[in-house]
């Protein structure tokens, strides 16, 4: 399984950044393939969620789990349908506010790996760029409400669909 990590600093208080990320309604603001995220049920140690969106010109819907741990300012998630798919985000204090560390564990499907290889030179580079794009969108959302639209449309930032798809439990990865 591929393990991918990215980090960014955000000029906002850590509790505020974590609050933004822990609110499922905000996910479509920083993951451009996501159109809707909603709760599906609560368990003792996690919440089940459903994710809907559009990637590579087709709609998707999948279900997984999410566990928010406010005391640690950490969220962890995974898929009910993709063995081994998992991720986490941790918000810590940094000199100018907060630091966000994003971790993703996934083996992209062969067709996605081939596209990442073709478009970015390697799967690892494509995933690294996708993580950077997603973290940039989170930063834009937290620091400047108008910035998220600019982050999504910027030509100098890599396409986040590989990460956005996998992070949202897209069955095509």
From TrEMBL:
Q: Which domain of life is it from?
A: Bacteria
- Where in this protein does the record put region Disordered? 147-173
Q: Name the residue ranges with Basic and acidic residues bias.
A: 149-159
Q: Compositional bias (Polar residues) spans?
A: 163-173
Q: Which InterPro entries match?
A: Polyketide_cyclase/dehydratase, START-like_dom_sf
What SUPFAM superfamilies does the record point to? Answer: Bet v1-like (SSF55961)
Name the record gives this protein: SRPBCC family protein
Q: Which organism is it from?
A: Paracraurococcus ruber
């Amino acid at each position: 399984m591929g393990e991918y990590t990215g980090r960014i600093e955000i000029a906002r208080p850590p509790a505020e950044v974590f609050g933004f990320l822990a609110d499922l309604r905000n996910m479509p603001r920083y993951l451009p393939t996501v159109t809707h995220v909603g709760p599906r049920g609560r368990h003792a140690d996690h919440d089940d969620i459903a994710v809907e969106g559009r990637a590579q010109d087709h709609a998707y819907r999948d279900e997984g789990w999410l566990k928010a741990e406010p005391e640690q300012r950490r969220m962890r998630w995974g898929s009910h349908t993709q063995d081994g798919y998992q991720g986490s985000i941790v918000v810590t204090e940094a000199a100018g506010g907060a630091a966000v560390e994003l971790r993703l564990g996934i083996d992209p499907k062969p067709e996605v790996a081939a596209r990442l290889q073709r478009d970015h030179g390697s799967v690892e580079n494509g995933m690294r760029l996708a993580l950077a794009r997603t973290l940039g969108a989170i930063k834009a959302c937290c620091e400047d409400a108008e910035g998220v639209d600019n982050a999504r449309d910027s030509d100098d930032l890599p396409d986040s669909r590989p990460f956005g798809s996998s992070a949202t439990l897209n069955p095509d990865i």
